[in-house]
Task: inverse folding
């Protein structure tokens, strides 16, 4: 199953990028060998980056997808400790906000080494039970339990700060 998915992705990506067929076959052979040895395989940075861009491009619920090829992809799969994780989050926010000239930016952590992020976005509006959009009510309750005292629909940078506070206590 994994090899089938990898083959589909690699063929799509490498074909879209006009790679020679021999390069595609070589990469598929490398992936098959790695899967046979480890049960998994590691994307190259180019595969990681293009895969993230393809995912955005193919997301039919996002109007911003029209700019998929401008996505900046940060590979943070090497991050293994909390302090480096926090530093990378700070860097992500700085790069993405870009001096108030927002740019599309994604940081990708290792699925096995990164700490758990409980909210689906680090910076998000608060969610309340009787609000127009209560989608973030669970994380809002957690933030309030941890001491946040925000008002109405204030942008919760506090989630980020509480998240960092929680990480530092681990």
Result:
């Amino acid at each position: 199953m994994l090899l089938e998915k990898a083959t589909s992705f690699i063929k799509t990506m490498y074909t879209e990028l006009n790679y020679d067929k021999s390069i595609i076959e070589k990469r598929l052979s490398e992936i098959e060998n790695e899967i046979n040895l480890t049960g998994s395989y590691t994307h190259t940075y180019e595969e990681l980056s293009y895969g993230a861009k393809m995912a955005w491009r193919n997301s039919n619920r996002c109007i911003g997808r029209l700019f998929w090829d401008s996505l900046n992809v940060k590979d943070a799969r090497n991050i293994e400790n909390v302090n480096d994780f926090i530093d990378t989050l700070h860097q992500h926010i700085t790069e993405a906000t870009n001096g108030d000239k927002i740019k599309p930016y994604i940081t990708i952590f290792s699925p096995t080494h990164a700490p758990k992020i409980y909210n689906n976005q680090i910076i998000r509006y608060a969610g309340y039970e009787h609000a127009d959009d209560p989608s973030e009510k669970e994380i809002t309750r957690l933030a309030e339990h941890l001491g946040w005292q925000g008002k109405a629909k204030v942008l919760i940078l506090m989630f980020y700060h509480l998240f960092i506070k929680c990480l530092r206590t681990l």
Observations:
- The first helix runs from residue 2 to 16.
- The radius of gyration is 19 Å.
